[in-house]
Write a structure and sequence with these properties.
heterodimer; A: mainly alpha; B: alpha+beta; five-stranded antiparallel sheet; 21 strands; rod-shaped; membrane (chain A); transmembrane helix (chain A); DUF3311 domain-containing protein (chain A)
């Protein structure tokens, strides 16, 4: 529906971030990191999930702040 | 340190602190500086998602199945990212439609269905109770473990304790009290709880602090950082905890993500804090990243703690307690207490918000609808607040006790940790209804009903039932062999679907049934009107007001104009286009500039509403195809409006036709009071200015000269009659300056007081009366001035008591229209009253009040003005010389002031003419001439009303000769009632009405026996619209035919018999009973023309006077007679006759046959004669001349001396 273009754009961008996050945390992408190895001393999957998580937080924060 | 007392004291202190926070927040809120009007507080309040179970159980879960607990956190992160798309809509809908719970939302979305609300409530309660029991278990277990310090106890070893010694029960009761105190202290229409939200945000800080403290202590104190810890764990063979494969299927992982996504939206407590408690949707922007960040911080130490717990405590300790027991084995009592407080914090926050949300749903969507259906009287109850509070509190206690019971029954099994998933799966059943309802307009109530019931049934069968079976409440064979051994129905392999873990299996089936049922049933049916209307409201919630839209499409000016005409009419459309401030378009074919299209839409939306205006303009401009459902809604809305307008018009039509049926001010006021009851108001009172009641012109302020308006209560009407609290009819009312009526009089505008109870100003004017009115049940009020031509006539007050809905703005305009109409009627009635009063006064002043004294006839008369106005009837009795009397009856055409004035002129003229004493036909001729001349003048002056057509009857009765001369000009012939009672309508030539001229009038002379009655009347007496005049005359004849009645009696009898019910014409009636001057009162002498005769006559007269005992008049009479006789002899002709009449006066008459008239001369000193008449005039009271058939009479009257005893 017609709404202010800023809000519509913001919703769209954030929805895209959400979709990206979803794709990254389910197989098959997830399966690529599902192994027992450790990286920088921490488990790979653990590190990967928190990385994705942090990235999503950062993206949402930045996108949200820019369209004010 | 960790003794039971200390722990309890710390817990109580902490709960006390929460209260302080809550009270502070509410104080701030009352002061207008809300603490929770802050994006960070909002984000922290969302963290109610983190429960005590998460605090303890995540580590436990991670210790057994590794990293898969993170799936529960991926969902919220994704859902929050979708926040601007999904959450913001729900926030807006909740705000705009006052949705206060999940059940409310679903019910409102699908046509405000009470059934759906109840269903959602039931599912939510059933689904969430296990989750609540989880919190109770977590808190009570933690308490049991920490109070046994330094011993490390495993919950499973705590054994079975009787309920009264069970910490869980006390925890449940304590939390119930806490929740009741927090959540139901007062009712808020928005169901917002400032204090609670502040406390929840505070708790979120405490619980993350506890978890971070433990995490940091363990990771960096007990171990040397993450890599040390993870390395040791890997070394100890815990590597599989770092992966999903091997213990958790990707399917489960996927469902964890989906379930948690939906849970963060649909759990009752999340719904409460996210949507209901939201202050500003902008806060969502920060929460969208701050809340995931909080969750991240909250979970980052979970896996390390699990690994550390296994490494340091081994398998002997329950992994669910690692967070608590790790500090305990290290001897960190303070840290352990902090963790316990953190867990308590998480538990109380979760339980408080969850139960409040559930209690709101239970009371608003389940119990109240049932109560309102069952006991309709409840709807009229004044104070439902107490009832609602009671229901909520009961619900809170019951929900917590239910949670405790579940914990007692099922909680001993190992499956408790999976209860969280069970709850998540339960609330996930709402997803199709809520999300579908947000984005798809096609969903129907039936679809939701089928989907929800199906999904919930599957959930119960495939998740709840197995959880009971695993707890030992149901035989385990149910899972293995299916109910009654039917393998196809095994709860965890329904219809043979094997190979899935229980969660995936349950979610697959329930999602299939739920979504499938929702979509298929919705598509199969059609949304009804209410559902459509709500669908548009919900789905298009983000639609911005029309004005902000930019039109890029092209449309011609002509097309736009045609569209406007369809809605506004030709004139309206032209006005709308003319009011466009920009350059006016050159031709209809020109393309309309975007601003003009905007202008047209704005003009239209004022008439048909914004949504319809948008659709209409869309249709012309063709930018967007008009969707069928929107048109449906538009039509529905429009037809509702039309129906409403039609009803109002009908009422107004009925009401206005009931007002002004008469021209009576008071009656009109009563009609106004009556028509509005009960259709519009329950009571109506009307006050009118005093002057209006009198018919006078009131001043603009009600005729008080600027002081406080004073009115007289003129009419009261209501559904009840007895013991009304209002002023009574006839009371004089002074409106206090600030009262609503005074304000409405001052401004000339109607005043609406929708809720009298909330109007301190109104109550302050007269506290006692106000409270009586309120006690009577009156709750809503409109007062409207009655003004016509800018003049205030009065005020009308409308009151509502039994109609539950207060007056609205629309009612105000209806009241104003009604009052305007009534005011015109009142003004008409007032003017009529005034004119009528003036005309009556004029006529009465013109008609004889008392008839002159005369003895010729005995007279009685009646005059009755017509109801609708004064007429021109008149009559007169004029004494004439010679014991005669003239009777006059006339009728001027028409009614009103003009007729009355004309009548006055004619009457005066007749009086003047009669003094000349002409015969009746001659007098009528004079009158006719006068009327003709007057009318000519009137016509020349452009006056439309003339006198022509007036009728007159003139009769002269001589009481000496008993003769009566009658002439008439178009008037009805008089009736003569003879002494024997026979009635005769005198046969007098009719003559033409006055002013027409032509035929001369004719007198008829007849003899009347003594005691005959002459009856003169006007047509009003005998003429009726519905009957022939002869009928009236016949009736009159019958009535008159009674002998021996006095004139008064005759008048009464005639009016009794002939007075019509509705008197359309005025009536004049004159009855004269004839008398005869007896022989003893008359003396006559013939005088020969000889001076000596004079002496003889003088002697005879002198003797007669002595006989009549009038010696005092002897000298003057002799003098008068000798003068008159001498004159007659000197100037007159033929036989001279002298007559003396002793009546009221002593009349001397001298007859001769000459027609020359003597006239008074003022003789000079040298004149020899010419002093006779002068002398006569000096000596007599009156004198004059009249003409007879064969000569003239000179007469002189002398007043009779006062006779003692006469």
């Amino acid at each position: 529906m017609a709404e202010s273009p800023d809000n519509g754009r913001l919703a769209g961008r954030l929805a895209a971030v959400g979709a990206l996050a979803f794709v990254l945390v389910v197989p098959p992408v997830l399966a690529q990191f599902d192994e027992m190895d450790r990286i920088f001393g921490v488990p790979v999957l653990w590190a990967y999930l928190y990385l994705v998580w942090a990235a999503v937080i950062a993206l949402v924060a930045v996108i949200g702040a820019r369209t004010r | 340190m960790l003794r039971t007392g200390v722990i309890v004291a710390a817990s109580v202190c902490y709960l006390g602190l929460l209260f302080v926070v809550a009270f502070y927040a509410e104080r701030r809120a009352d002061a207008g500086r809300s603490l929770i009007n802050n994006a960070t507080v909002y984000a922290l309040s969302l963290a109610v998602y983190e429960t005590a179970w998460a605090l303890y159980g995540n580590v436990g879960g991670a210790a057994t199945s590794g990293i898969d607990f993170l799936g529960f956190y991926m969902g919220p992160v994704i859902m929050l990212a979708l926040g601007w798309l999904v959450l913001r809509r729900i926030i807006r809908i909740s705000r705009r439609h006052r949705v206060t719970s999940l059940a409310d939302f679903v019910s409102a979305r699908y046509g405000k269905s009470a059934v759906l609300g109840g269903l959602v409530t039931v599912i939510a309660v059933v689904g969430v109770v296990p989750y609540i029991s989880l919190q109770l278990k977590a808190v009570s277990n933690a308490f049991e473990i920490i109070r046994r310090y330094p011993e490390i106890t495993t919950p499973s070893r705590l054994g079975h304790v009787p309920p009264l010694q069970d910490t869980g029960l006390y925890a449940a009761l304590l939390l119930a009290a806490f929740t009741i105190l927090f959540g139901t202290r007062h009712l808020d229409t928005a169901e917002r709880h400032e204090g609670l939200v502040a406390a929840v945000a505070f708790e979120s800080v405490v619980k993350i602090g506890a978890l971070l403290a433990v995490g940091i202590f363990v990771t960096f104190w007990m171990f040397r950082g993450f890599d040390d810890l993870f390395a040791e764990a890997a070394h100890a063979g815990l590597g599989q905890l770092f992966t999903l494969q091997g213990h958790t299927s990707y399917g489960t992982w996927f469902w964890f993500i989906v379930l948690s996504m939906l849970s963060v939206l649909l759990l009752p407590r999340q719904w409460q804090v996210t949507f209901v408690e939201n202050v500003d949707e902008e806060h969502l922007k920060r929460a969208m990243w701050l809340f995931p960040l909080y969750l991240l911080a909250n979970t980052v130490f979970v896996l390390p703690l699990a690994a550390a717990g296994i490494l340091r405590l081994g398998g002997a300790t329950d992994a669910d307690t690692f967070v608590l027991t790790l500090p305990m084995v290290e001897g960190q009592q303070a840290l352990a207490l902090f963790v316990f407080i953190g867990g308590l914090s998480a538990g109380t926050a979760m339980i408080a918000v969850e139960t409040i949300a559930l209690a709101t749903m239970v009371s608003n969507s389940l119990v109240m609808p049932l109560l309102l259906r069952g006991r309709s009287r409840l709807a009229n109850r004044d104070d439902v607040t107490g009832l609602v509070q009671g229901i909520r509190r009961t619900a809170i206690v019951l929900i917590l006790l239910l949670g405790y019971a579940y914990f007692r029954l099922a909680g001993e099994g190992h499956a408790l940790t999976s209860f969280g998933v069970v709850s998540f799966a339960a609330v996930a059943q709402f997803a199709p209804a809520v999300l579908g309802g947000l984005f798809w307009k096609g969903g129907t109530r039936q679809g939701v009903l089928v989907g929800l019931v199906g999904g919930f049934a599957i959930w119960s069968y495939t998740l709840l039932l197995p959880s009971f079976a695993e707890s030992g409440l149901l035989p385990a064979s149910l899972l293995r062999e299916g109910p009654l051994g039917i393998e196809l129905l095994r709860p965890q392999q329904l219809f043979g679907l094997a190979g899935l873990d229980p969660t995936s299996h349950a979610m697959f089936w329930s999602a299939l049934v739920n979504i499938g049922g929702y979509v298929v049933v919705s598509l199969a049916g059609r949304p009804n009107t209410a559902e459509q209307a709500q669908a548009v409201q919900f789905v298009d919630i983000l639609a911005e007001p029309a004005g902000e839209r930019r039109w890029r499409a092209r449309a011609t000016v002509g097309a736009l104009q045609t569209m406007l005409e369809r809605f506004l009419g030709r004139e309206g459309a032209e006005r709308a286009v003319r009011s466009y401030p920009g350059a006016s378009p050159e031709s209809p074919e020109a393309a309309a500039p975007p601003d003009l299209i905007h202008h047209a839409e704005a003009q239209l939306s004022g008439t048909v509403g914004a949504a319809s205006a948008r659709l209409a303009v869309d249709a012309v401009v063709g930018q967007e195809p008009v969707r069928t459902d929107e048109v449906m809604e538009m039509i529905g809305e429009a037809s509702q409006r039309v129906e409403l307008v039609r009803q109002r018009l009908e009422f107004l039509y009925d009401a206005t036709s009931g007002i002004g049926t008469t021209l009576d001010v008071t009656h009109t006021a009563q009609e106004l009071a009556q028509v509005a009851v009960p259709g519009f108001a329950d009571y109506v009172t009307v006050d009118l200015a005093e002057a209006v009641l009198r018919g006078d012109e009131p001043g603009t302020d009600g005729g008080t000269g600027g002081g406080s308006p004073r009115m007289r209560r003129t009419a009261v009407s209501g559904i009840h009659e007895e013991a009304l609290p209002f002023f009574r009819v006839g009371d004089l009312i002074t409106f206090a300056p600030a009262s609503p009526p005074a304000r409405s009089i001052e401004t000339g505008k109607a005043v609406l007081v929708p809720r009298l109870r909330d109007s301190p100003g109104w109550q302050a004017v007269d506290q006692e009366r106000a409270s009586r009115i309120l006690d009577y049940g009156v709750h809503s009020y409109i007062t409207t001035p009655l003004t016509a031509r800018g003049v205030l006539l009065g005020v009308v007050h409308f009151w509502r008591s039994e109609k539950p809905e207060p007056f609205e703005q629309d009612d105000l305009s209806l009241a104003v229209e009604l009052a305007a109409h009534a005011a015109v009627s009142l003004d008409n009635a007032r003017r009529y009253t005034r004119e009528h009063g003036m005309a009556v006064a004029l006529q009465r002043s013109l008609l004889p009040r008392a008839l002159p004294e005369q003895n010729a006839v005995e007279v009685a008369f009646r005059y009755l003005p017509a109801q609708e106005g004064v007429g021109g009837d008149w009559f007169d009795v004029i004494p004439l010389s010679g014991a005669r009397v003239a009777l006059v009856m006339g009728d001027v055409v028409g009614h009103g002031l003009h007729a009355a004035a004309t009548m006055g002129r004619l009457r005066t003229a007749v009086h003047n003419f009669s003094s000349l004493d002409p015969p009746p036909h001659e007098l009528l001729s004079h009158l006719d001439e006068l009327v003709t001349v007057t009318d000519q003048d009137a016509v020349a002056a452009g006056d439309e009303t003339t006198i022509t057509g007036a009728t007159c009857l003139y009769a002269v009765y001589d009481s000496v000769s008993r003769s009566c001369a009658v002439a008439r000009a178009g008037h009805l012939a008089p009736a003569a009632v003879h002494p024997d009672g026979s009635v005769e309508f005198l046969d007098v030539p009719s003559g033409l009405p006055l002013g027409i001229g032509g035929l001369p009038f004719e007198s008829v002379e007849l003899l009347l026996p003594e005691g005959s009655s002459l009856v003169l009347f006007t047509d009003g007496l005998v003429e009726r619209r519905d009957q022939d005049i002869d009928t009236g005359l016949g009736l009159l004849r019958e009535t008159l035919a009674r002998p021996g009645r006095s004139p008064e009696e005759t008048c009464d009898a005639v009016l009794d018999a002939l007075l019509p019910d509705i008197q359309s014409d005025d009536i004049a009636l004159l009855v004269a009973r004839t008398r005869v001057l007896g022989a003893g009162q008359v003396a006559q002498w013939d005088v020969e023309s000889d001076p000596a005769a004079v002496r003889r006559v003088r002697a005879a007269v002198s003797a007669l006077l002595a006989e009549w005992e009038l010696e005092s008049l002897q000298d003057t009479t002799e003098l008068i007679l000798s003068e008159l006789i001498t004159n007659a002899m000197r100037y007159g002709v033929g036989p001279i006759k002298v007559r003396l009449l002793r009546d009221r006066t002593l009349t001397c008459e001298v007859y001769d046959n000459s027609l020359t008239s003597p006239h008074l001369r003022y003789a000079t000193t040298t004149d020899e004669g010419g002093r006779g008449l002068f002398l006569v005039a000096q000596l007599s009271a009156r004198w004059g001349t009249r003409y007879t058939k064969d000569g003239k009479v000179i007469w002189a009257e002398q007043t009779m001396p006062e006779v003692p005893g006469s």
